[in-house]
Structures are given as C-alpha cells and as structure tokens.
Specification:
Elements lengths: L2 H11 L3 H22 L3 H18 L9 H20 L19 H4 L6 H9 L3 H12 L4 H8 L3 H27 L1
C-alpha cells in the first residue's frame, strides 16, 4: 500500500474531514460504478453510494492494513447494495419446478463480435429484475461461485444458477434487439 493512501486512512480513522474528502475523491469513481451496477437507477445508486460511504467512514478503524483497501471498501459497497435490495424484496422465491436448468445454453452473442458501449451494457443490466441483477453482478463482476451467492442471498444453488441463466437470456435479447436497431 502506498504511503499516501495509508496516511489518508489514518486521517479518516481520526475523523479528519480533509482526509475523508480526499479518500472520497480518490475512491468515488470505482465505488459509484459498483452502485450503478447493482441498483435499478441513478437515484437508488446515489442513495446506496451515500449510505455505503457513511458505513465505510464508520468502520474504517476496522481496516487492519492487510490486503487491498479498495477491495475492502468494495465489499462494503456491494454488501450495502445487496442489503438495500434484500429489504426491498424480502421474498426472493423461484418456483424451481418451472425452471429447466441447462448449463450448455448456447450463447448466440459469442459467435459474432458485438460492439456495445459500457454505458449501454450498464443500462441493460440496470433494467434486469432485482434478483437477476444481484446474481448476475455477484457472479460476473465479483467472481462469486454459485455456492457463495446462494449462501449470501439465502437461496438454493439451483436458484442462483437459474437466475444467472435468466439474466443472461434477458441481456442477450436486449443486446440483440439493440444490434438489430443499429443494423436497420
């Protein structure tokens, strides 16, 4: 860890406002991106962003200068986004009898190289239903296994797999529709 970041963290532990402002400025772009990935719209992302920074500053004295500080901060933001989504949707049930799991689903987008901006992709991800978006983000962006996702969201492993498959299908359809519009 570089000395400047270490000094900023120590200032924040002492609740130094200037240190908090500098740390906020340094980490905001990455941490706000996390909020945008998990939340449905900018307003919800703004709320999570603000609340998660408050939590970060309240818990910063718990950081032990082991491992990446940015990784530690990201966990706070991901957990806050998930908690907000959990509260918003207390009952996350999937009727497993209606689901056919097929891990060999062919990805039509992998055959052709597609061009889609990061903003367009983010917009499509934000339009996913909450439970699809949570699982998709945890699996794709955070690298969680289906077992870890199931434990974190208190669901069956099969539900995690199903929700990921459904999220990919919805995204694939939205991207295909967008590409067809661009071609026309």
């Amino acid at each position: 860890m570089d000395k400047k970041l270490q000094t900023l963290i120590q200032k924040c532990v002492k609740q130094d406002r200037e240190g908090q402002r500098e740390l906020y400025t340094l980490l905001s772009p990455v941490l706000y991106g996390i909020c945008l990935k998990y939340m449905k719209n900018k307003t919800e992302a703004d709320d999570v962003f603000q609340d998660a920074f408050i939590i970060l500053f309240q818990k910063i004295d718990q950081y032990k200068f082991q491992g990446s500080f940015e990784g530690w901060a990201k966990r706070i933001f991901v957990n806050e986004a998930l908690e907000v989504l959990r509260k918003k949707q207390r009952r996350l049930h999937v009727a497993m009898e209606d689901v056919e799991l097929n891990s060999d689903i062919e990805d039509s987008t992998s055959k052709n190289r597609i061009e889609i901006s990061q903003d367009e992709l983010l917009e499509h991800i934000q339009q996913l239903p909450d439970n699809y978006r949570m699982v998709f983000n945890l699996y794709v962006f955070e690298g969680f296994s289906h077992r870890a996702i199931a434990d974190k969201l208190k669901m069956a492993v099969g539900s995690s797999k199903s929700l990921l498959s459904r999220a990919k299908s919805v995204l694939r359809l939205k991207i295909d529709e967008e590409l067809n519009k661009k071609v026309s």
